[in-house]
């Protein structure tokens, strides 16, 4: 208890810190900590620790620091910390524990709204009197020297803002004076600060985040980074709004779950760009892993089709065609049901929350998605999934004279699409016209609905204002391929002390054997198997920065904690064949179960 009091008196005691921006950078995270613990600047860096273990055997465990540094988003989504106690430890030297401001027993620290210095509760009033007096003297001196550009004002706080514009821009507290009658210069500065700040905040760092999120994504040279900044800015704007809650009943059949998803995304919601919460009925899983599972389920249906038999064809496919040449289905039922708008909402929603994307969309549709109707589409024969049409186009593009039957086939299609019959002069032109009609004209309404769905989620604005980002929203199919090296480079293997032979009920050799089997499984896995493994491991088929492996004697089947991006392997296997069989069985349970098998 005495040590705790000493830490409190030296300014190193327990504090409650709230980060207003979950998606802030590591530098901003560090700035907040250094503001709360100024002495930490002398420590040569810091690391974070969390309590681990039962009450009697609790120890402090170092939280791994990612390459970009600690951030609230990393601690919450990757480590699983929300409202929790975290310990801060200097890296290079012990900190001075002599009593410092604010002094013990003198109240909590308070920041001066004029000079931004921090004082104890008992000292702030005396300081404010001196601070205001100093401001008056400076104002009088400037007025005397003829250098004052402001108007006389009765309110001292307005004089202070007018005399020092940087004080106004650095402090959100000046927003409170927005309606005062001040000089034009001060008024313009006030309006600019109000535009940058989020409503209802008193943290000056939010000004920086607001400006960064609304501007940088338009000029950021790295397109993937620009997409991330845009996502973050949208989610930051709506973080105070109520969550959009999606429910999925795992006890129901896949068809019933798909129907629930379509019903959810057909709802008339005024703002789809809101924080997302997912409830899994029939499963106790919680955390961000649940959201990953939901978005992975949704986007896999967009990509590969629904099991729902809406058209008496067995499955309902929204996109068909070859890899990197996918185009929307021409189904009249899907179009009349406004389901492509639902698909657009799903795509935009998953993008906003960092989920899987629709890969392999034909680039010939990009100009339509961007609203660039005057931009000619560059078409390839592979963009048309209809083999009857591609055969006719191939005939027209060839150099061999058409037979009577071939001319009849071409003319029959041309008449149906209001195109002239074929002759020697229009043959090449007709080939392009048929291909354009088959790929573009027959899918304009579908694309219009998808654009409306993207607009509902506020993602359409991103590609309209910066068209290059459409490659981020609709990546190539190769972007989803996962190679063994991509997984192995991210794995954090179990750390053990070779001096200790026994680790509970299993030995060091057991650990090496299990990790060896697992490495062999990854190295021999096909791209499809690795994709399923990652989805089982983290909740969706997207590689995180780190993947964690643990070995346990308390389980009988491989299990995954998706929120922690951790896979646990039993120690019972003596052969690779039995290990591989059980791991494949566990991975295949992703659709019917979640998290733990």
Automatic annotation (TrEMBL):
PROSITE patterns xref list: HECT
Pfam families: HECT
Every HECT domain range: 274-597
Active site (catalytic residues): 563 (glycyl thioester intermediate)
Pathway: Protein modification; protein ubiquitination
Reactions catalysed according to its record: S-ubiquitinyl-[E2 ubiquitin-conjugating enzyme]-L-cysteine + [acceptor protein]-L-lysine = [E2 ubiquitin-conjugating enzyme]-L-cysteine + N(6)-ubiquitinyl-[acceptor protein]-L-lysine
Biased composition (Basic and acidic residues): 177-197
Protein name: HECT-type E3 ubiquitin transferase
Source organism per UniProt: Triplophysa rosa
């Amino acid at each position: 208890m005495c040590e705790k009091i000493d830490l409190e008196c030296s300014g190193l005691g327990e504090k409650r810190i709230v980060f207003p921006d979950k998606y802030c950078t590591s530098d901003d995270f560090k700035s907040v900590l250094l503001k709360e613990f100024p002495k930490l600047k002398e420590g040569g860096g810091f690391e974070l620790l969390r309590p681990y273990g039962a009450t009697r055997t609790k120890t402090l465990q170092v939280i791994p620091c990612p390459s970009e540094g600690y951030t609230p988003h990393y601690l919450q989504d990757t480590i699983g910390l929300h409202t929790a106690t975290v310990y801060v430890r200097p890296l290079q030297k012990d900190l001075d524990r002599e009593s410092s401001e604010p002094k013990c027993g003198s109240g909590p620290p308070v920041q001066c709204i004029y000079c931004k210095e921090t004082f104890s509760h008992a000292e702030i009033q005396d300081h404010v009197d001196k601070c205001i007096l100093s401001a008056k003297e400076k104002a009088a001196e400037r007025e005397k020297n003829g250098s004052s550009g402001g108007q006389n004002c009765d309110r001292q706080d307005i004089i202070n803002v007018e005399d020092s514009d940087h004080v106004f821009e650095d402090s959100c507290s000046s927003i409170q004076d927005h309606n005062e009658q001040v000089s034009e210069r001060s008024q313009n500065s006030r309006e600019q600060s109000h535009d940058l700040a989020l409503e209802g905040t008193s943290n000056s760092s939010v000004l920086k985040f607001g400006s960064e999120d609304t501007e940088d994504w338009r000029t950021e040279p790295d397109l993937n980074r620009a997409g991330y900044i845009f996502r973050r800015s949208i989610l930051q704007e709506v973080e105070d709004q109520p969550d959009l809650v999606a429910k999925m009943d795992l006890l129901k059949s896949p068809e019933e779950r798909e129907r629930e998803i379509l019903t959810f995304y057909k709802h008339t919601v005024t703002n789809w760009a809101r924080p997302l919460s997912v409830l899994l009925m029939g499963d106790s899983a919680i955390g961000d892993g649940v959201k990953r599972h939901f978005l992975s389920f949704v986007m896999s249906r967009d990509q590969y089709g629904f099991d729902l038999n809406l058209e008496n064809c067995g499955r309902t496919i929204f996109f068909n065609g070859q890899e990197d040449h996918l185009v929307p289905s021409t189904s009249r039922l899907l179009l009349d049901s406004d389901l492509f708008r639902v698909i657009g909402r799903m795509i935009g929603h998953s993008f906003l929350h960092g989920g899987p994307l629709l890969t392999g969309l034909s680039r010939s549709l990009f100009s339509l998605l961007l609203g660039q109707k005057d931009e000619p589409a560059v078409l390839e024969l592979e963009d048309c999934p209809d083999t009857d049409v591609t055969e006719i186009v191939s005939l027209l593009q060839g150099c061999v004279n058409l037979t009577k039957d071939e001319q009849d086939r071409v003319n029959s299609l041309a008449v149906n699409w209001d195109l002239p019959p074929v002759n020697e002069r229009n043959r090449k032109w007709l080939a392009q016209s048929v291909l354009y009609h088959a790929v573009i004209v027959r899918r304009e309404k579908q694309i219009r609905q998808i654009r409306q769905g993207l607009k509902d989620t506020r993602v359409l604005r991103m590609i309209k204002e910066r068209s290059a980002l459409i490659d981020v929203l609709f990546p190539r199919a190769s972007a989803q391929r996962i190679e063994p090296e991509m997984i192995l480079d991210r794995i954090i293997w179990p750390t053990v002390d070779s001096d200790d032979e026994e680790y509970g009920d299993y030995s060091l050799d057991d650990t090496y054997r299990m990790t060896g089997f697992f490495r062999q499984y990854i190295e021999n896995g096909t791209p499809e198997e690795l994709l399923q493994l990652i989805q089982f491991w983290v909740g969706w088929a997207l590689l995180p920065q780190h993947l964690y492996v643990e070995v346990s004697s308390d389980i009988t089947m491989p299990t995954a904690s998706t929120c922690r991006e951790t896979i646990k392997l039993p120690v019972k296997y003596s052969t690779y064949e039995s290990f591989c069989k059980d791991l494949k069985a566990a991975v295949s349970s992703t659709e019917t179960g979640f998290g733990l098998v």
